[in-house]
Amino acid sequence: LNGVPQISTLDGWWAEGYTGYNGWAIPLAPENSDVDAVDVENLFTLLENEVVPAFYDRDAAGIPRRWTAMMKHAIRTAGERFTAGRMVQQYVRDYYLPAASGVLPDDDPPAG
User: Is 34 helix (H, G, I), strand (E, B) or coil?
Assistant: First the structure.
């Protein structure tokens, strides 16, 4: 919600949160590769070719339009998908109400 475009590998929350407009995805390393080395190379490539230019590319008024657009998308995505309010609503709908009526969820205990 702080408006900072993210950059990460597509695992964890970023696999759900990445839209292509709210930050950058570091491609996953191929199997049987040196994951750290591949991630570092991909990170620096993204920084050099996409992230830094988006931040420093300014219009005549000095505004980084691409960066600002990504910030707005980051806020929108986080506000829609990753708030405590959304989480509580989902837990009530998917877990608490069914449990109160004696129905256990399919993933009891939760797998993920």
Answer: coil
- Sign of the CA dihedral with 61 first, then 64, 66, and 70 last: negative
Closest listed residue to residue 30, CA positions, set 16, 15, 41: 41
| Distant-in-sequence, close-in-space partners of 60: CB < 8 Å, separation ≥ 6 | none
The pLDDT of residue 107: 66
Give the CB-side neighbour count of residue 3, counting CA atoms within 13 A: 5
Give 112's DSSP letter: -
Name the β-bridge partners of 23.
6
* Residues 21 and 29: beta-carbon distance below 8 Å: no
Band (pLDDT 50/70/90 cuts) for residue 108 is low
Count the Cβ atoms, other than its own, within 10 Å of residue 69.
Answer: 14
